[in-house]
Q: What sequence folds into this?
């Protein structure tokens, strides 16, 4: 059986992103989202999710851009203080998530794939195992639905192609739907509206039905 989690990243980044994610869930195929607890619209995002209890909610871990650039330089000797700082920040964001939501995240992923960094991944993986929280990369991960460098990647045609090539078992499709509002300051903006249009399209929903793909969230694993 083919089972698919459609996870919308960046909840809490901006009001329009929050609204787009919820629309993509209510009118489309999004089953899960992940919260940026340090985002300026985090509280707004949590309020919307509470009104949509079938929408899964995880943590979208993020760190400062300067630290991010350093940590991705795998051949460079990195001060242990920065690694420990990043680990501490992860734990702090988990606690903030619990304050917002009242429970642990139902999964862990991250902004710019921080949790995949070789110096950080073992720590986060161990925490997830100890707390019985799944994490991105635990199942087949699909990142080919992303509108850069070309918006063709977020077209209905490409998503249909992805669905038709889905492997057996559980997979996660990463997406970034949203509505462009004045509070959104991002190089990835109009692409979010294109994603939203595709994720709510009748053609995509019909294809999922035809292929007998089961839409799930992380709690269903």
A:
């Amino acid at each position: 059986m083919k089972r698919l989690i459609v996870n919308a990243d960046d909840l809490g980044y901006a009001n329009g992103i929050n609204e787009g994610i919820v629309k993509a869930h209510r009118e489309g195929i999004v089953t899960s989202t992940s919260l940026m607890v340090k985002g300026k619209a985090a509280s707004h995002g949590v309020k919307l999710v509470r009104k949509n209890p079938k929408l899964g909610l995880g943590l979208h871990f993020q760190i400062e851009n300067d630290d991010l650039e350093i940590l991705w330089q795998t051949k460079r000797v990195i001060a242990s203080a920065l690694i420990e700082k990043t680990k501490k920040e992860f734990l702090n964001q988990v606690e903030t998530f619990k304050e917002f939501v009242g429970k642990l995240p139902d999964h862990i992923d991250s902004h710019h794939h921080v949790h995949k960094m070789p110096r950080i991944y073992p720590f986060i993986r161990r925490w997830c195992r100890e707390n019985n929280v799944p994490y991105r990369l635990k199942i087949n991960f699909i990142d080919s639905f992303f509108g850069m460098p070309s918006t063709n990647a977020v077209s209905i045609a490409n998503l249909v192609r992805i669905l038709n090539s889905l492997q057996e078992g559980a997979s996660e499709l990463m997406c970034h739907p949203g509505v462009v509002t004045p509070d959104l300051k991002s190089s990835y903006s109009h692409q979010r509206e294109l994603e939203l249009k595709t994720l709510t399209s009748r053609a995509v929903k019909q294809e999922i039905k035809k292929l007998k793909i089961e839409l799930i969230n992380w709690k269903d694993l």
Summary: The two ends are 13 Å apart (CA to CA). The chain has a mean pLDDT of 94. Residues 108 and 135 are 5 Å apart (CA to CA).
